[in-house]
Design goal:
This protein has 155 residues and is an alpha+beta fold. The chain contains six helices and seven strands, in the order ααβααββαββββα. Helix 2 crosses helix 3 and helix 3 packs across helix 4. The structure holds zinc ion.
Length: 155
């Protein structure tokens, strides 16, 4: 499967609520029936979860091949588990979230305006043509100014 198709599977699921995301995470941890899922979600999210938020979603997971029923217990309790495809999808979702979290918590990283290396800390700042630019070192700043002059004289 191509990456695009995999992303489509995620899009089609419309993981647009915490309820759906947590439902997937619980199923990722262990097989569960809709009722237990609902109980866990209520506890985790501290809010009321309706069967209508759970059962249609489970059916959708099943239809798209991300989950399957592994056994049916008394009173028609269907126990769901994620398929291989479902587990991959959850892993992709988690990667995506960890990227977002990474961006949110990591301090702003400066990049040298001349050579492009990442700068830890303040770096070397210099005002050039009224703009304060950050470089990794003063040599890069000098190089940048030289290049800029060359570019200007060509015009
Ligand atoms: Zn540099």
């Amino acid at each position: 499967m191509t990456d695009n198709k995999k992303n489509d599977a995620i899009k089609q699921l419309r993981i647009n609520t915490l309820t759906k995301l947590f439902a997937l995470l619980y199923l990722y941890k262990c097989p569960m029936c809709g009722y237990d899922l609902m109980k866990n979600l209520r506890r985790a999210l501290q809010r009321n979860i309706n069967p209508e938020q759970i059962y249609p979603f489970l059916r959708k997971l099943e239809e798209s091949g991300l989950a399957k029923v592994i056994r049916v217990e008394a009173r028609d309790k269907k126990v769901y588990t994620l398929t291989e495809k479902g587990r991959e999808t959850v892993e992709r979702l988690l990667n995506r979230f960890s990227d977002l979290i990474q961006v949110a918590i990591s301090p702003k990283v400066n990049v040298c305006a001349s050579c492009g290396v990442k700068i830890i800390g303040e770096g070397y700042k210099e005002e050039i043509d009224g703009e304060i630019l950050t470089f990794c070192c003063k040599h890069c700043a000098r190089h940048y100014k030289e290049e800029r002059l060359k570019f200007k004289s060509r015009k």
